[in-house]
Each structure stands twice: as C-alpha cells, then as structure tokens.
Amino acid sequence: MEEPYKMKHQTWLVAKNIYRSRIKGAGFWALVVSPFLLAAVYLIIGLIVSSGVNATPQIAVVNEPALRQVLQADKNLKVDLTDVSDEASAKTKLTDGKIDGYLTINSGAYTIVTSSKTAVKVDQTAFQSALTEIKISQTAKNLGLSAADVQSLLTPASLQMQTQTTTGKTSGGDDRAGANIAVGTIASVLIFVLLMMYVGIIGQEIGNEKSSRIMETLLAATSSNVQYYGKIIGVILLALTQIAIYVVGFSIAYPFIKTQDAVKQIQSMLSGIDVGFGIYLILMALVGILGYLFLASIVASLVNEQAQVQQATQPIAFLSMIGYIGGIAGAAVPGNLVLKILSFVPFVSPTLMTSRFAIQYSTTAEAWTALGLQLIATILVAKAGEKIYARNVLSYSDEKIMTQLFKNIRGKEIKSQKNTTKNQTWKQRKLQPRRIILAIVIIILIILFKFFFK
Asked: How far apart, in whole angstroms, are the C-alpha atoms of residue 332 and residue 336?
C-alpha cells in the first residue's frame, strides 16, 4: 500500500512542478491571450469598416423632385435624398465631398454616380428594388390596374427552406448550411491549435531534460512511469486551465456583448447546436490532446537534444493534419465515404468527427462511438509507451528517430552512444501484445495517410 501511494505522490509532484513552471511563464499566458487579441483586432477592423459601410449615404436626385419624394417614402431605402437642379451642380457637390452620389434618369434608364474618394457604400440592390417598384406602379397605372392589383402583383411567394438533420429539422436553407460549415471549420481549427500547442509543450519538457542530462538525476529518485505520467498530467492541467479561462471569460463578457451584431450572428450560427455538443467538444478535445501527448512523449524520449524535438514531433503534426484538413473538407462535403470512415479512426477523429457532428451530419451515437474509440486508443498507446519511454529516456542513440521508434515497437535493441539499460533476454525482447497493437495502429495510420493524400 505504501509503494503505490508513494508513486502517486511523486507523480503529482512532477505534475505540479510542470504546471507551476509553465503557468508562471509568459509563454503560456501569451498563448491564452492571443485568441482574445485576434478577436480584438478583428472587432476593431470590423468597427472601422462598418463605420463606412453602415453610414447613411447622401444622394442627390437631379431635376426629379417627384421621384425624390417617392424614394424618400420607401422605408427599406436607407439613404438621405436631396434635390439638385442640374447634373453640373451635382458633379460639383460630389467633387467637393458634400454628397456621396447623385441619381439621374434618361429615357427611363437610371444612373447613380458616386466618387471613389467616399467610404460610404451605396446599396445598389435596395435602390434597384425601389426603382423597380416605381416602374411597376407606373406601368400598372398606364394599364388601368388598381392599387390592390399592383399590391397583389408585388407580393412575393412564401417560401421556407428546411433541412432534415440527425437531430430534427432546422430552417435557414443556404444561410444555415453556410453557418454549419463555419461552425464545423472553427471546431476543427480550435482542436488542431490546442493539439499542436500542447504537443510542443510536452516535447520541450522532455527535450530539455534529456539535453541537460538531468533525467539521470530525476530517475535516481523516481521511476520512469512517475516522470512519464506526471508530465502528461501537468500538461493536461494546463489545457484544462486554458479552457476554464475561456469559459469564465466568455461568461463574464457575454452580458456586455450579447447585443452586438457580431454576437447575434454567432448565436444564429449556433442555434442548431445544443449543450450536448459543447460537452462533447470539450471531452473530445481533452481526450484528443491526451492521446497526442502520449505520442509526443514517446517520440520525444528518443531525442538527444532540444534541437531534435521539432523533428521528432513532425510526424505527429502530419498525423493531426489529416483530421484538420479532413475536418475542413468534411464541413463542405460531409457525404464523402472516405471522410466518414476516417472520422472513426483514432487520432484523426478528434477534429474530423467533431466537424461532422457540428454540422449535424453524424449522429450522436456515431460521435460518442468515435470518442470511445479515441479513448481506447489513447489508453493502449499510453500503456505501450511506458516501456518505450523507460527504455529510451536514458538512451542517447546515433540512429534516426523513426528508426529507433520502429525498433522499439519490434522490441529490438538500439545502438547508442550511452545506454544505461541492461541486456535483455530473448524472452524480454520478444513482441508483446501491446507492442503488436501499437504497430498495427501505426501501420493503419500510415496507410490512411498515404491513401488520403495520394
């Protein structure tokens, strides 16, 4: 009882050390704050652009006071209209910046002239609609039609678009489909960024310890499993902290920003997504990050110095890119059979299945099945990685990192500059079931990678 308790205590000590050292550093907070800075820049740019786009244009109507009165009465036309006696005066006012444009009529054809110097946008569609109604009214009057007849002719047909999804019907047509694609893409990008962020952190931690040769001292006081799981727990705590900061920050800011047009647009995009998806998104992100952290720990244990960490974790980045690209593509073409199969493959599903679930193309059962498969794969990789980490964390080999990895999976001995592990018997080095499982997973992922990018 005392030994397991001691190991748990030591594991938490390692986790706390990783967590405290990272959370006190400026790098972690830069990662946390960067999305808010990007959002702030986007908001500022949006406000600058909208200040010109949403400004009311000043339009002069040339020598047509009756037309100006009719257009001024149109509530859908957001414009300030004034009368001007002739086109020469209108050109002078436009050049001086007193108006944003002027409207002329010649033989029944309308022309709006604007200046390239003005930032105010004139809504051509609204103008065309208003002028079309005027033309129809004039034509109807010439034909002897009553006002009721004209109104009946102008009344548009009633049409509502509905899309049948796995969770019921949602309205919106093409606009709703575009919103779903945006949500699916954002979900893929979010998980991909978190994956890469924390894979880099765990790689740096292990790389620093191996390059400084401090690992020998650490393992003299603790076991390799303590270091292995302690680092993972510490980094996962960082991920949970970052997610919690975002949730709390949004909860505090929401009452102040809920009336903003941009927030209302986001709300309309999320109208078909319930709380269950939010819970699923967080769980899948955490399980996905956890799985990639174990993979990163395994390959990072093979490096000799910090400079090799990026090279070692590059295959992991390529693996995550499959799900990332698939998630973006899946939001646009969710019916693709290859993408549907890949959405169940562990280490691809965190981004791809999340995207498909966001656009409501995968059922709830399918989404949670993919989460379960990812969790099982994460546990298997974690257990298989224990021996690989223990064997290589004190090994400094001349061989290529991928060569070392495959030799470890097959249980072969690695040529090293300094290897403190003892000679193993044939029975100790023979293929273990967990190694076989890990080898099969890697082979499947390589085949899928080649098939997907061929």
From this structure: 10
3-state secondary structure of 55: coil
Strand ranges, E, within 298-440: 395-397, 416-419
Per-residue model confidence (pLDDT) at position 33? 83
> Tens of pLDDT along 347-368?
888 888 887 887 777 888 899 9
Distance CA 288, CA 298 (A): 16
Residue 384's pLDDT is what?
85
Q: How far apart are CA 7 and CA 13, in angstroms?
A: 10
pLDDT for the residue 180: 55
SS3 184: helix
In angstroms, what is the C-alpha Rg of the chain? 32
* pLDDT tens track for 378-430: 999 998 888 888 877 766 666 666 666 666 665 555 554 444 444 444 344 44
Q: CA 138, CA 133: separation in Å to the nearest integer?
A: 9
List, as one string, the DSSP characters of 380-420: HHHHHHHHHHHHHTTEEESS-HHHHHHHHHHT----EEEE-
Number of continuous H segments (helices) and E segments (strands) in the chain: 18, 8
- The Cα-based distances of 163 to 160, 171, 355 in angstroms read 10, 6, 18
* DSSP 8-state class, residue 146: -
What are φ and ψ of residue 310, in 5° steps?
-60, -40
Buried b (16+ CB within 10 A) or exposed e, 163-184: beeeeeebebeeebbebbbbbb
- Mapping DSSP to helix (H, G, I), strand (E, B) and coil, where does residue 452 land? helix
Segments of the chain with pLDDT less than 50: 1, 167-176, 416-431, 453-454
Tell me if 257 sits within 8 A of 263, measured CB to CB.
yes
Bridge partners (DSSP) of residue 62 are: 84
Q: How far, in Å, CA of 406 to CA of 401, rounded?
A: 9
Beta carbons of 359 and 334 less than 8 angstroms apart: yes
Q: How many residues does the chain have?
A: 454
Task: Determine the pLDDT at residue 174.
Answer: 46
Note whether 104 and 87 are within 8 A (CB).
yes
